[in-house]
Structures are given as C-alpha cells and as structure tokens.
Amino acid sequence: MSSEPLILGIETSCDETAVGIVRGRKLLANVISSSVEEHARFGGVVPEIASRAHLEAMPSVIATALSEAKIKLNDLDAITVTAGPGLIGALVVGTSSAAGLALGLNKPLYGVNHLSAHIAVDALDSDHPLDPAIALLVSGGHSSILQVNNLTSDVKTLGSTIDDAAGEAFDKVARLLELPFPGGPSIDHDALSGNPIAIEFPRGLTLAKDLADHKYDFSFSGLKTAVARYLQQIPNYQRADVSASFQEAVVDVLLIKTIAAAKASGIETIIIAGGVAANSRLRELAQDRTESAGLLLRIPPRKLCTDNGAMVAALGSLAVTQGIAPSTLGFGPDSSSGIARPIF
Ligand code: KG4
Ligand code: ZN
User: Fold this and answer.
1) Position 344 in a domain
2) Sign of torsion, CA 333 167 152 32?
3) What percent of the chain shows pLDDT beyond 70?
4) Which of ligand 1's atoms lies nearest the C-alpha of 118?
C-alpha cells in the first residue's frame, strides 16, 4: 500500500446507489444513482423499489466511479460499505456487493456506520483534525447532537429527537404544502421568497420545564401539527411564508441546542452533517451564530451532505489509516445500528 490508502465506498442505505473513491483524504470520485423519482408518487421511499433499483444500478455506478477516479479495481486497498442503519433490503444489496468485491479481489472489507460516515465526509479535501467536535447530525431518519471524542471509537450521544427527525419534518410539512418529495430541497427553495418571521411557529423542547429532561433533545411533531393547524385556519395562506417560517423554527432550535452543547462541553468545533445540512438557511445562520459565539464551524459541501459513497469511503479510509482491523466477511447489515458502533 502507498502511504495513502485507496478506498472504494458503497452506500445503499436508502434510495441512493452511491459509490465513492478516495485516496487518504482526497476525493477522487463520487457517483450517485438515485431512485427518488420512482418513490415520488408514493410520497416516501418504498423499500422494495429501493432494493431493486440498487441491484440494477450497482454495476454501472461502480464502473463509472472507477473511470472517474482513473483507477482499476485491483489498485484498491480496501472496500468499505454502509452496514447500517438503513432499510434492511437496501443494505443487503450494498453489503453483498461489497463482500463479493472484497472476496473476488482478496482485499479487506470494512462495514461502516452510515451516521459516522456522514460526519467523516468532513475529512475530505482538507487536513484539519476531525475530533474532538460537537456534531449536529440531521438527516431523514436521525437528528442528534453528538460529542465526537474520536470518530472511529468514541462518540457520545448528548441528545436526539424524541419524535420526528428534522428531515422527516421537512418531508411531512412539504406534503402538507403540496410541495414535491423530498421535502427538504422543496421547502428550502420555496422559502427563498418567503418571510421567515411572518408566522411564529413553536420551538420544540426549548421551554424551561422541558430543558430539565431534554436539554439537547429535539421534538418536531408539535411544529408539524402547528403548521397543519395554521393551514386549516388560514386557507388563503402565503405558501412561501409558511415554508420560510417553518424552516426558521427548525433551524433556530437546531442551532440553539448545538451551540449550547458546544459551550457546555468546552469543545470549540461544530460539525453539521447529514442531508438537512444541505439546507441554505441552516448553513447561513450556523455561520452567523458560531461566529458570534467564537466557535469554529465545519459543514461539508452541499452535495456531500445528502447520502453518497464518498462519505463511506472517507470513514473507511480513516479506519485503514488508523490500523483498525477489517470486518469479517460474514458480518451482517444492521438496520437499526446506532452511532456507538462506527466500524463493524
Ligand atoms: O442524509 P440523507 O440524504 O438521508 C438519510 O440518511 O436520511 O437525508 C435526507 C433528508 C431528507 O429528509 C431531505 O428532505 C433532507 O435530508 N434534505 C433537506 C435538504 N436537502 C435534503 N432538508 C432541508 N433542506 C435541504 N436543502
Ligand atoms: Zn444519510
């Protein structure tokens, strides 16, 4: 192996069939085939459709990534793959493909955690230390504040959503507003022409009585209900104002709690990761507020925030560089694995 490991990462936990290739911390290829349009008419991801789409797309996505990176399969030092959390049938396609490749090429195989990978993507094309950091991880399935002491071995959950994930709230409110799925990008775009202070929507779990038990936890179901009630009461509502005000409520509470966690921990770096980290208002307000608080902010480029293979390769590359032992070929995908298990 040259000094920098050459790693291929496969991601199939939801509706993206994605393959990334990195050398050390350098991004060489990032190819994504999404089945999102096949799910759109159902208003959410249909697991069986996702699994079939992964099977169909996998060979060409791998081939395109290899040609983009200008390498051959045999050049690789290891294969890495999302082992969980995610849709079980979708994970099985990715992990089986990865195991087949690793076996055929006689290369080490690393099953990695999807949530840790969302954070690890921040390593690419830069050389700053990844940890310690306070991470705000916000996606379609998860919303947590994490204390990342060591990304591959020691991540503590400080708080999580007690009901909907932030991305799920975007998706559900978009449906109420009859905006297309997935809701996050639709609301983000619609909000650009709206007034974020037009409607005062609730900030979940920020009252003194809630903070005692839920200091760093989130709740978005009350907000969704408040939006639904508003739409019933004001039939000729201004959609862009509702989008902007809803988005402001989500982003405000995410940042209040993340910055409070950073201050309490004494850790000066905040990483924002996961699909919702692509949100323009979150990116903008995070910049303002971390600057005022004297904290350092890191957010991956937008296209690396939503699910991709580069993040899986990035975490695999960290594991290889740190001399972590590979997974055994027989490891199984785990649809509900938490962040406490970064490498399988
Ligand atoms: O991380 P991700 O791609 O998949 C999961 O691991 O869940 O996150 C997908 C979620 C979806 O709920 C989507 O609506 C949301 O991220 N999302 C956004 C934006 N782009 C994607 N939410 C708000 N603003 C965006 N620009
Ligand atoms: Zn994700």
Assistant:
1) no
2) positive
3) 99
4) 1
Q: What is the mean pLDDT of residues 170-180?
A: 96
Domain that holds residue 229: 133-299
For residue 150, give Cα distances in angstroms to 50, 54, 316: 33, 32, 14
Return the half-sphere exposure (C-beta side, CA atoms, 13 A cut-off) of residue 20.
32
Residues 112 and 183 in one domain: no
Question: If 0-12 CB within 10 Å is exposed, 13-18 middle and 19+ buried, where does residue 79 land?
Answer: buried
**Is 326 inside a domain boundary?**
no
Ligand 1: atom nearest CA of 189 is 26
The answer to whether residue 270 scores a pLDDT higher than 60 is: yes
For residue 327, being part of any structural domain is answered with no
CA distances from 316 to 82, 278, 294 (A): 10, 23, 32
What is the average per-residue pLDDT within 185-203? 98
Q: Which ligand is nearest to the CA of 277?
A: 1
In this predicted structure, the answer to whether residue 159 has a pLDDT above a threshold of 90 is yes
CA 312 to ligand 2 center in whole angstroms? 10
Distance CA 2, CA 55 (A): 32
| Ligand 1, atom nearest to 168 Cα | 12
Q: Are 138 and 284 in a shared domain? A: yes
Q: What is the mean pLDDT of the chain?
A: 96
Tokens linked to 173: 């409110």
Each residue's pLDDT tens digit, 311-330: 999 999 999 999 999 999 88
Pocket of ligand 1 (CB under 6 A): 14, 139-141, 167-168, 170-171, 182-185, 188, 274-276, 278-279, 306-307
Nearest one of 167, 176, 305 to 242, comparing CA atoms: 176
Sign of CA dihedral 92, 98, 104, 108: negative
Ligand 1 atom closest to 16 (CA)? 3
Q: Is residue 342 part of a domain?
A: no
Let me know: does 11 contact 114? Beta carbons within 8 Å: yes
Q: What residues have a C-beta under 5 A from ligand 2, the ion?
A: 139, 307
Token output for 47: 């697991």
Residue carrying structure tokens 């991601």: 11
